[in-house]
Amino acid sequence: MGKLSYDDLVDPARWDVVGYEIGLDDLGEFEPDDIVRSRRAQLLMRQERYEEALLELDRVEGPPGSGLRRLARLGLGLYERVLQSEPTPAETLNPIELEEQFYFAFARAGAASQLGKLDLALQHNAVAEFIARTLRMERRLHVVHADILRIRNLMGDPQPEEMAGLYAIMGRWNRRLSLWGRRTLVEMHLARGDYTRAHRDARGDSALEAFTGMLACDGTARPSNGDHGAIANIAQSVLGGHYLPDDVASQPYSDYARVIRAYGLLRRGHPTAAMRHLGPKPPGFPDQRVYWGGVALLALAHAGSSGLPPFDPLSIADVVHEGVARMISTDGVVCVMRRYMPDALAALAVHPETHPHLAGGLAEVPLLVGGWVEYRGDRVKVPPTLGEAAILRALGVSNGRLPTVHAAQESRYRSYLGRMGLSPDEVVNVGVLYRLARTMEGIANGDNVRSARAWRRVAEELASKAPVLQSYDTGH
Question: If residue 191 lies in a helix (H) or strand (E), which one and from where to where?
Fold first, then answer.
């Protein structure tokens, strides 16, 4: 680039190019007026120094300072304030005032998307896109278009091929845009269930690499000791086996955390709390809809007739079908569920309206049916009273009515499983699936007789696998 001129700072189209190629020191030769201070603030924001940028903008009276203030507040997480702010009326619609309107629209789009108001975010970005095109701000146009793709991805419409093309261009401009573009591209791969490609493209971002490695069933995936952000926390919660990640504010990770936390509550015996965490609205990402559906079914199984779900149990299959239809493959999701939540996979597999790609899930998990565990065509011996007690406990039978299980039997059980490379945590209890079938049959009765009959057949088929279920069914 040649010598920087003041005209480069005033003309929005020229600044759109040079602003990505200079540093703060390059502005030192200019007298600090509104334009120079505004450009300094933009360079500070590109270094994520938002508070310093606001201090710089406090001394700016004219455009584009007001719009840039919204961008700085967006960077500080003041989403409600940014979204509620009204644009400063443009008096003459000269290029610099139009540029200010661009920042207003783009900042409000970002705030709306952070607040989950995705349709509104698209509306504001459409305004920003029009202004950027009018001013020939080509680089900003690419950024806005990438953000539109990001929002559409959050709405369940991933377009990774188009995003990859934009990332190839934007990634050359500066490190921050490169990181943002890469993360957005990876998120699109995640949405489509393409975990292997997501893991490959995440390299260089250690927290994201650990998260995608977990989803890619890469046994070596671990967050580094210095990773304490939301993404690393979710990965640690699953890989560590406690399934209770911290609250996450940003999408799409907040929905991953929501489903994982609900599963963690189920593991601790709190199905009602798990259903509250799942909430009435399924996630937007296609892959997340499958996880949500599996955990929702499992929560119904554990709650039995005592739980009042905030979601419609009879629509779960539709949610899962919608998710599968927008994924390139279910292999990644099935691998994740088989490894980290096998009972949720089994719940999906026994659903009479399950998607064909998930119907084989029951054969992929170890299933306790009484005196043995069935797994991939083999049987692992189980002390009979231990198996019966576990199944009856899953049906809600009180401890006083359960067969007595001795420590030696539990030790033998673990030993038998260990020879197959399994642990008790990986084994799915047929009693849980049976309870799911009976619960769903009860929910469907009266509203959907056909569904009730289908669930009754599922219950009968499960009972045929385990003698203790047949005895329970006749004597209950």
Answer: helix 175-191
Give the SS3 label for residue 428. strand
User: In the block, which residue shows the tokens 């719940």?
Assistant: 347
Place of tokens 């201070």: 37
Q: What is the pLDDT of residue 163?
A: 93
C-alpha–C-alpha distance, residues 221 and 302, integer Å: 31
Crossing angle (nearest 10°) for helices 95-114 and 118-134: 160
| Cα–Cα distance, 369 to 430 (Å, whole number) | 6
Strands lying side by side in the sheet with 378-381: 378-381, 372-375, 367-368, 428-429
Q: Do 322 and 294 meet the contact criterion of CB atoms below 8 Å apart? A: no
34-42's contacts with Cβ under 8 Å and 24+ in sequence apart are 34/60, 34/61, 34/62, 34/63, 34/65, 35/6, 35/9, 35/10, 35/96, 36/9, 37/65, 38/64, 38/65, 38/68, 39/9, 39/15, 41/65, 41/68, 41/72, 42/68
Q: Is the dihedral of CA 398, 399, 403, 408 positive or negative?
A: positive
Q: Which residues are bridge partners to 375 per DSSP?
A: 378
Q: Rounded CA gap, 239 and 223, in Å?
A: 10
- pLDDT, residue 382, reads 86
- Residue 320: closest CA among 372, 259, 272: 259
CA distance 473 to 185: 51
Q: Cβ of 134: how many Cβ atoms within 10 Å?
A: 14
One-letter amino acid of 222: R
Q: Which long-range contacts (CB under 8 A, 24 or more apart) does 450-453 make?
A: 451/314, 451/352, 451/353
Q: Burial-class residue 48 by CB neighbours within 10 Å (0-12, 13-18, 19+).
A: exposed
Kindly report the CA angle at 367 between 366 and 368, in degrees rounded to 5?
Answer: 125
Instruction: Name the phi and psi angles at 379, rounded to 5.
Output: -125, 135
Length of the chain: 476
Beta bridge partner(s), residue 378: 375
Residues of the chain with pLDDT below 70 are 1-2, 90-92, 219, 221, 223-228, 399-400, 472-476
